[in-house]
Amino acid sequence: MTTITNSSLVLISCKSVVPSNTTIGFHAESTCGRGTASIIWNCLTVMIFAVWSTIHLSTRTLHSPLWYKSLLQTGTYYFWSPWRRLLRKEADDYMSDVEFPNFTSRKILEAVITVLFPETGVVVAVEEVIVAWYIRRATSKVEGWESFSLKQAHLIAMGGILVPGLEATQDFDQLVLRRKMSFAIFPTHAQISRRAKKDYTDKAIALFQGVYFIGNCWMRYRHKYRLARLEFIALNYLIYAVLVSALRYSKPQELQDPFQSKWSHEGTDIDYLGGSGEGRGGVADLNSPFYIWYTRKRWHIFALILLALGTAGVLNFCYRIGPTHETQSLLWRITFLGIVCISCLPLRQIAHERNALRAEKPGLLDRVADVYVGMCCLGYVALRLYLLVGAFLRFRVATADVYVTAPSWTQYLGHVGG
């Protein structure tokens, strides 16, 4: 005679009530909290905190020598513009300091855009590292500035120090060389850390949520329970959060008050040495870091492509364990579109650099590159919104085992509070 334990009865009854081949749509909260509302709440909190904890705002909204950061700044401006008119805020320059009412509002607006389009946070972080690395590399070649670090370069790139006569952050080394500035009076790491705010609370909450959420999903996968599409998207955000945190490790998180430089205001004019072939080695080093990265440092192209493919591979693995191949196909389209957008950026940048060097009007290559980039961006926006909206609509035809909970909290981590 075969004996059946209580736990086996519970498990059998649980499986029989909600078989995996049926759909039940929206599901009310159960005792264990595994319903539609709990899934949406958990996923949204993970996504929002993952984005919020990785945002490192610049002290001032400076014009970037590259493209993606300027695009994000323009997007936040147009998002804020109707509210500014409602509040009767006036600004002569849309990139001025009075563009937003305060530092927190800027962070909220950037978080909204990054939550909707998480890839923007990654490419902006990559751009910030490129500009800061370029400033550090060029400045460390000046005599007396050999110990100039990446964190101090971020301070220049983010407008964290007011330097008289510096119009473009990527020209800081030329200004140092021209005016023979002393490195001894530049803010040290300790001074920067004391003034910059560190949101350890936000990062701790995001870390706990991320680890718990990953454990939740892994336990469900091990017990052959299905994951909702929104949960896969939340895993996508966690992967991006880890990547952005690594890229912005050296950048001060919240430095609201810039340092006042102690250098004199005399000799604020800068002679651009690139055109004469002195100092930087020719016209190829004019202004744009991307011009150097994609013409002289070919291996950076492969590094960027490998980074994108690596991210796509991890996300593809997450979607492969999902219920359908439809989501996996959508993910591959979005990832491929992001790779195309990143890859076509040097084409646009180099075309603008050459026309600026020759003092010419935008040519055919400029117009083709602009249209191409614009079409890619519009396609990306449409696909990303379609994926996000589709994840919520998917709950209308959700499979029953999405809501199944384990018979005992000792067998399933996510059983505790959903």
Descriptors:
1% strand, 2 strands, single chain, transmembrane helix, mainly alpha, 418 residues, membrane, two-stranded parallel sheet, 14 helices
Strand order of the largest sheet: 1-2
Work out the count of structural domains.
1
Q: SS-based structural class? A: mainly alpha
User: Which stretches are low in confidence, meaning pLDDT under 50 for 5 or more residues running?
Assistant: 1-19, 89-99, 265-297, 411-418
What portion of residues belong to β-strands? under 5%
Q: Round the Cα radius of gyration to an integer and report it.
A: 25 Å
Query: Largest sheet, described in full?
Result: 2 strands, parallel
Order of secondary-structure elements:
HHHHHHEHHHHEHHHH
- What's the N-to-C terminus distance? 38 Å
Give the number of helices: 14
How confident overall, as mean pLDDT? 70
**Large-scale geometry:** elongated
- The proportion of residues forming helix, as a percent range, comes to 55-70%
What does this entry look like structurally?
The chain is mostly helical. Helix content is 57%, strand content 1%. Strands 1-2 form a two-stranded parallel sheet. It is elongated. Keywords: Membrane, Transmembrane, Transmembrane helix.
Question: Can you describe this structure in just a few lines?
Answer:
By secondary structure, this protein is mainly α. It is 57% helix and 1% strand. The protein has a two-stranded parallel ribbon with strand order 1-2.
Write the layout of secondary structure elements.
Layout lengths: L5 H12 L18 H17 L15 H19 L16 H14 L1 H22 L10 H8 L3 E2 L9 H8 L9 H7 L4 H23 L6 H19 L11 E2 L28 H7 L3 H22 L5 H32 L6 H30 L25
